[in-house]
Amino acid sequence: xxxxxxxxxxxxSLTNKTGSWRIERPSYVNRLPxxxxxxPAGENIQEWLSLVEQEKxxxxxxxxxxxxxxxxxxxxxxxxxxxxxxxxVVVDNPVGINSVEQFLxxxxxxxxxxxxxAAKSSGKKVLVIGAGPAGLSxxxxxxxxxxxxxxxxxxxxxxxxxRYGIPQYRLARKVLDAEIKRIVKQGVxxxxxxxxxDLNVLMKEESFEAVFLSVGAGKARTTPFPTEKDTRVFxxxxxxxxxxxxxKPDLGKRVAVYGGGNAALDVARTAKRLGAKDVTIIYRRxxxxxxxxxxxxxxxxxxxxxxxxxxxxxxxxxxxITLEKMAxxxxxxxxxxxxxxRMEADCVVLALGQGVDAELFDGVDAxxxxxxxxxxxxxxxTAQEGVFAGGDMVSxxxxxxxxIGHGKKAARCMDAWLRGxxxxxxxKHDLASSDRLNxxxxxxxxxxxxxxxxxxxxxxxxxxxxxxxxQTDALSEARRCLSCGNCFECxxxxxxxxxxxxxxxGKGKGFEINYDYCKGCGLCVAECPCGAMEMTPEEx
Amino acid sequence: MMKNTSFNPKGNRTIGNRLxxxxxxxxxxxxxxxxxxxxxxxxxxxCGEALGARWVVDAAMKAAKGKLLVVNATGxxxxxxxxxxxxxxxxxxxxxxxxxxxxxxxxxxxxMRVKGKGDVRVLAQGGDGSTxxxxxxxxxxxxxxxxxxxxxxxxxxxxxxxxxxxxxxxxPTASTATTPSMGHEPGNVxxxxxxxxxLAMAHQIPYxxxxxxxxxxxxxxxxxxxxxxxxxxxxxxxxxxxxGWGYVPNDTIRLSRLAVQCGLFPLFExxxxxxxxxxKICEPCPVEDYLKPQKRFANLFKGDKKSDKRLxxxxxxxxxxxxxxxxxxxxxxxx
Amino acid sequence: xxxxxEGSRAVAEVVALCRPExxxxxxxxxxxHIVEGLGELVKAGHVENCDYINxxxxxxxxxxAIGASAAGARAYTATSSQGLLFMAEAVFNAAGMxxxxxxxxxxxxxxxxxxxxxxxxDAMSMRDAxxxxxxxxxxxxxxxxxxxxxxxxxxxxxPVMVCVDGxxxxxxxxxxxxxxxxxxxxxxxxxxxxxxxxxxAPVSIGTLVGPDAFTxxxxxxxxxxxxxxxxxxxxxxxxxxxxxxxxxxxxxxxHVDDAKTIIVAMGSVIGTLKxxxxxxxxxxxxxxxxxxxxxxxxxxxxxxxxxQKAKHIIVLEKSLASGQGGVMSAHVKLxxxxxxxxxxxxxxxxxxxxxxxxxSDFVESMEKGTHGELHFLDLDHAVVERELAAFEQxxxxxx
Lengths: 540, 335, 399
Ligand SMILES: Cc1ncc(C[n+]2csc(CCOP(=O)(O)OP(=O)(O)O)c2C)c(N)n1
Ligand code: SF4
Ligand code: SF4
Ligand code: SF4
Ligand code: SF4
Ligand SMILES: [Mg+2]
Fold this sequence. Notes:
The structure holds 3 protein chains of 3 kinds. By secondary structure, chain A is an alpha/beta fold. Chain A has 4 domains: about 5-30 and about 485-535, Alpha-Beta Plaits (2-Layer Sandwich), CATH 3.30.70.20; about 35-115 and about 445-480, Alpha-helical ferredoxin (Fumarate Reductase Iron-sulfur Protein, Chain B, domain 2); about 125-220 and about 355-420, 3-Layer(bba) Sandwich (FAD/NAD(P)-binding domain); about 220-355, FAD/NAD(P)-binding domain (3-Layer(bba) Sandwich). Chain A contains 18 helices and 20 strands. Chain A has helices at about 35-40, 45-55, 55-65, 70-75, 80-85, 95-110, 135-145, 160-165, 175-185, 200-205, 235-240, 260-275, 295-300, 400-420, 455-460, 470-480, 490-495, 525, and strands spanning about 5-10, 25-30, 125-130, 150, 190, 210-215, 220, 235, 255-260, 280, 305-310, 310-315, 320-330, 335-345, 345-350, 355, 385-390, 500-505, 510-515, 535. In chain A, helix 4 runs antiparallel to helix 6. The radius of gyration of chain A is 28 Å and the shape is globular. Chain B is of the alpha/beta class. Chain B contains 11 helices and 8 strands. Chain B has helices at about 50-65, 75-80, 100-115, 130-135, 135-145, 195-200, 215-230, 240-245, 250-260, 285-290, 305-325; strands at about 70, 95, 120-125, 150-155, 205-210, 235-240, 270, 275-280. An 8-stranded mixed sheet of chain B has the order 2-1-3-4-6-5-7-8, with helices on both faces. In chain B, helix 1 (about 50-65) crosses helix 7 and helix 3 (about 100-115) runs parallel beside helix 5 (about 135-145). Chain B is globular, with a radius of gyration of 19 Å. By secondary structure, chain C is of the alpha/beta class. The longest helix of chain C has 30 residues, at about 215-245. Classes of the chains: A alpha/beta, B alpha/beta, C alpha/beta. Chains A and B meet through helix 17 and helix 18 of A and helix 1 and helix 9 of B. Bound molecules: thiamine diphosphate, iron/sulfur cluster (4 copies) and magnesium ion (MG). One iron/sulfur cluster binds near residues 496, 499, 513, 521 and 523 of chain A. One iron/sulfur cluster (SF4) binds near residues 496, 502, 513 and 521 of chain A.
């Protein structure tokens, strides 16, 4: 017989429920990663990066296309605000989200991954006007929701700004075509070269129950300086559009581009590729204030494009341009200095921004422009019931990704509206800001960047400048993701609990806190690298 | 020493990694770890000793393929784990006295040897008080005889179980119940204390190492390494004590980390009396970062000349460690 | 086999025959020859599967034994005097944990003043530690008690201390019958612990017990000591059957049946006392003798029985409870009828010889009623009176 009291059977302490000591309770949470928050298309970036991390590439791609049906395109042309928001800067530098997206997009094209058609048809017909990013995105999401979608596009080809505004060296047309084809293939009726004249009539005639307008903003601004009759002044929008036609625009050997946005750079770099020797961008403020993205400016400079900062064009007469030098005032606005300079150019291309072409809506009273855009409500609906709008025409912040986001949101709101409901604004989690992280656990790992074609050679053709990542690099980039706000099964919480109060449920199944024993010390929460846990006071 | 996987920049310091099989990461990440010290024990919230003991004994259990007997000295670990009628131990465990754990372990190991169960290994453990002070004679004897025992000291730098009194492991300036923050030299005085790992090395035993709760992989690798030797082995683990050090319980691991990163607690290994490796400091910090969150060091932060001087003396101790063990990391060993 | 050997050697050989698995030793006079002998026997390969461990202190020695015993090994150690005190904490601990360790105590005085010679103060200091304490009269019994000790200890899960008077027995060369291995094997079965560190059935041994159960733990310890009465007697009887000679048991008596004066004592002094009793008997005095073999558990019942008809009791003690008198006397008084007068005779402190003549003179003078309750045999009155006088004088000077 074992001695009384001084010998005890193993593990009998389990009868002592130390959970009663707790005044704060840990729990698992999902927080919104800043990248997700910043993504205009609303992608769950952290989630698909995590799938890539586990080498589940197709799953990752399918996660992206829940929000953005064109990852190969976005992986090339998106200005990736996600990366600017990325928490990894506190460790080294942001995750190359965009490059992994491109990798997945390209892989999907290569592998022929297609969208599965909607499980159930709604029996409703909807119309999308304009096959740009917003329109295509809306069409995709509407189709996925079971609606019968027709797209009417005035141009000969679909793509909108993606085709007629973004040069080929940034977006190869076979990529664009492939992603459009995939959207269409799920049963979207794409009608090209069809200009809509009277919306209301059309809707009635073809019995569309709802419509999404996404005609973009393709109207150039007028020339802001005096010219002579035969001086050659073009606008960026038409130069880039004409690049898609048979006859390429003839810009001459010396090209001046006026403006500082991305379109200015696109045109300048296009001019270079068309054979111009001297290409100069004229911009009224300095480099820091330039709206164009830094990497594009960098690439342009590599291609020997000159930039004349702090200059405005006073006049363009003959081949002579008179520039006035500017100086920034305290608030950063350019003020004329009175000093002038001269230069020569065979043409001037204006890249001063675009407006919405309002002609289309002349017949519809409810579609009145305000401050250059069509106003829409929270649900992306215009003043006219059943008419939704998105993309460049409803916003002065314009880019392809924002448009894709609009397309998705509008599609969901239209779907709700068609069912007589309101689009639920999904409740967002708390932000997984960098102060939520325990960065000790993340080691420095150099970012693997996409390679650029050699500047000396790349201006000889319209081949893509940026080369995609290799699989190894894509994987490594995905593994750099800190998984902000979402558990990545690092086992820290499970490992650090002094009370053995956390149960590991197994790969992919997460963890469970055993509140019978958790004393509420908070160690698990403090040592969670990614902020996927929180402490909350115990009630009473 | 560190089991490293250049696999994943967010998986090398964490306890587990879903991209790897549990066995390649740590024992603590495994679903099947033995939880040698299980739930229901009565340690304070966030007790570093409770955590350290589970890490060490689980790892030793794995290395010994489940054939492990544990001897425990009197102290917090013993008291909070085995108050009648409950024990939190799931491994065979014996407690005798405050100062005799190494000798008891010698006896246990001898029993296994004579019974032809040499594959059953013995681990003895105790706090810093039992190790560096009252049990040091027995420990030295066990070392000297090179008995087949892994002795683990859980160093929380004072006699915690009796209410935080000074031990010979209490650092200078730390206030304890017997070195109060008073007088012209508040807290524990400079120039005292003993360095047990170095003393252990002086016994020329096969293996000596220090470890901290900031690095599970390193700690477990050291336990595993220790278990690969026969003879006397010594592992000294720094285990912060929220109660005795005066900090919020969720800081236990952060403080372990800072203790290492500031240089006050060097991580190293030695075999046969020679240092064989030292873990580089990759995110160096001033001792202040480590000391300031702890109430026991509050006397260093009065902002007067005298406390500044004493703080500088503390920094000098860290700097001396950094020099002695060549702790500063470079690009190569700090990714 | 009959041998002319030193007591320590006899003990060492017998212990070796009991197949200890772990022997730990730290030297202290007069225990040294025992552990030296064992060391030699183990090293020479005469003890199978035995680990002999040279430790750094007595505290370690008993602690090693505790560990070995908790892990299921038969453990043995030996010490004396200061050594016993040095291991004091472990002495209590081994008993509290119920570990059947056997320890030889080569009885020696405790310092200061440091003194290496025999008395019983060391054993008395640990009388409440929870051990069984057996006292040997002579070297044969010293050897025999060890054989019994392992069996008693393991049957009860209780440590046993075999007390052997330092020098008088440990260093005396006498004839001892050292049994054969077969005889001992037949008498001492293999150790089967009731609690053991076992990887297949993990338990926690040596837990913390609070006020809610401590009294019960102690009560059960006491019951265990009470159970030991029977075990000790049974083992002694079995021993007699197996080996054909008397050894152990609770007490042994010598001419007590008609005795008016009975002397109670223990250990090696019994031999001298027997001689004196014989002499006095020849002179027609009705004197008898009780030898206590088991001091713990204390044989109260037996003492009460044998002493009830005595007119006078003398308790000879080799230790002094300063400020009180005799420890054993106190025990005896508690066991008997209050009306029988008990005289405490403190003798043999720090190795002071106990001559038969002094004893005889004491008995004689006592019968004349010249002594009080407490008497110191052969005390040098001149010295102590001088010292006391000097003390008084200093006190007078107002120091
Ligand atoms: C011989 C002895 N002296 C003193 C004590 C009281 N005592 C028990 S635990 C303890 C402190 C233990 O300190 P440490 O070994 O550092 O372990 P901790 O409790 O800090 O983990 C003390 C002094 C004792 N039990 N035994
Ligand atoms: S680290 Fe990952 S989850 Fe966090 S912001 Fe960057 S990409 Fe998003
Ligand atoms: S570490 Fe364990 S005890 Fe502490 S809060 Fe987390 S689950 Fe609870
Ligand atoms: S600590 Fe690791 S495993 Fe636990 S919630 Fe955070 S990320 Fe997930
Ligand atoms: S006092 Fe310290 S060592 Fe003891 S249980 Fe509390 S936190 Fe742990
Ligand atoms: Mg301590």
